[in-house]
Amino acid sequence: MLPPFNLPNGIVLLITDELSAPADFLLHRSLQQHLKEVGNGNKDIGSRHVTLLSVSESLARWKALASRVNLNLDQHISAGTLEIIDVLSHVAPPPASTTSPTTVLKPIFDLTLRTLEKASGASKLVILDDVSTLEWIGFPLPDIWRFTRALSAACRKAGATLIVRHHNVTPGEPDDLFFHLLQLCTYHLEVRGLLTGRSGAVSGEIALHPGAATIVNGSVNLLPRSRALQYRLTDASAVFFEKGTGAAVL
Fold this sequence. Notes:
Largest sheet: 9 strands, mixed
Strand content: 15-25%
Protein name: Elongator complex protein 5
Structural class: alpha/beta
InterPro entries: ELP6, P-loop_NTPase
Family: Belongs to the ELP6 family.
CATH topology of the domain at 12-89 and 102-183: Rossmann fold
Shape: globular
Oligomer: single chain
Pathway: tRNA modification; 5-methoxycarbonylmethyl-2-thiouridine-tRNA biosynthesis
GO cellular component, one term: elongator holoenzyme complex
């Protein structure tokens, strides 16, 4: 999954980004790669399944970017290999006056659990984009913690890969939600802007760190910040290359 990082399936992947370097392209790349493998030498169209929990990105944009790589999301929705859950159409933050513990995100967990059960036997991917917005619009942190913990446990039990995107608004000052997610994840993919600012040749850089639940796997290319890959965004995706070179890694 996600070459050139060669991540295994069945993991919990935390993707963090910054305002100067949004990680949208990695989420789109993950969804596209997973769904494209449905018809890539595999006659069983139900062998792959994606559940997209969308908080802030419109379905129109997901479809538009997929079409650039000749992927028709409407076909996958009709075939049942893609299910998109518009989170905010199902739940709303509790009133600010609420002081007792709440479970307002449970309906989203229940919906996701049903999609995992329906996709039994398939290679499953769940994408939560993005968890930060839930906090920003008023969902209590304990609710988000319980939801992400339960979601990661359900995905592990079902053998599904879970990708969670979290925005780092103040680089160098991680928030409480980040530390909670770090304890849940197998790997942490960190997308950062350049200290010198974005240029036409380089859009940002990506480091890959172990998480609290890291699986020892020699095929995974862990990359500290000192050896982070740089990337350049293209119309359809991104090109990765080592620092100081223009030679593409992929």
